[in-house]
Amino acid sequence: MSVEIVNIPLRKSALRKFVQFPIDLYKDNPCYVPPLISDDIATLLPDKNPAFDYCRAAAFMAYNADGRPVGRIAVLINDVVNERTGRREARFGFVDFIDDAEVVDALFDAAIGWAREQGMNELVGPMGFSDMDHEGALTFGYDEMGTMATIYNHPYYITHYERLGFVKDATWVEYRITVPKEIPEKFKRIADIVARKYGLRSVKFTSRRKLKEAYGQALFDLINEAYDHLYGYCPLSQRQIDYYIDQYLGIIRLDCISVIVDADDQLVALGISMPSMSKALRKSRGRLFPTGWYHLLQGIHGANDVVDLLLIAVKKEYQSRGVNALLFADLIPIFNKEGYKEAESNIELEDNEAVRLQWQYYDHRLHRRRSTFRRSI
Q1: Per-residue pLDDT tens over the stretch 284-317
Q2: What digits encode the pLDDT tens for the residues 6-30?
Q3: pTM for the full model?
């Protein structure tokens, strides 16, 4: 196969084929969940994504001799993370390809060449600009439908990464959890004790405007604090926080958010969940129009038996003090009311024992595993 590599300009019109490629590649795969095309394009646009304030990026597509797209890859440099770690690493992401060594080699040669030109000496991925983007190649659970927050890939991706000399760098696990009919008794006791001991309480909102005004900034400040020590984390800038407040708080169902505050109304813990959008995104094929919007609205507000646990964040001084029990004591009755039978944990680092141990009180199974891969360049 003769392979042509094209450097894709980071412009809306040029990126449409880049974002569309994996949707076509996996069109017959029942486990693949497509992204919302407009969101992925916006992520790669320097004039839209505030991460470009401190990141650089390039995108490449591979075409065969007939002019048909056969692969894609983006390569990113997060200068803030490199300053924090002292490394000179580039990240690869938005990576998909057919099972052909010539195609894969050509894509990674282009990515590595660009990274070297930028002065980098390592390549790691799949990762995005920040933790708000998808990360980690699927290594186990290929027969399980993914989520809107995770990457799906064929097993042969891992074979090619290893063939090219990449080795595992970090590993995440994902659990499928049965939503209990009642709050587990031990969790309920812990929640009651913690609430009394520290003067904590749950706050509910029926107005997005009031949530944004009262805790919009505090939510993302807490995420920055709680996640700061995690693998590859990049603190969100103020421009990113403003961007995500508008992007995410405008669509998440308010009843699926748990906000825990202290006696002074200061934010202590946060749990964000939402009805699974996997089936809705599959029906929409990543498009809002002409009918995709209907499927997405049905996913958010229609009948749904799966809920995605998108994130949990607890203020540092309250970590390992049972505050998580308050979050679940708040959310479990809501999950039952809405008819959710199962919950997706989404990704959590395999070595984050404190997070993994919380599932011991629930019927659960490990059903996906994923990793990033690193090599010197």
Answers
A1: 888 775 666 667 777 777 778 999 999 899 999 9
A2: 999 999 999 999 999 999 999 999 9
A3: 0.93
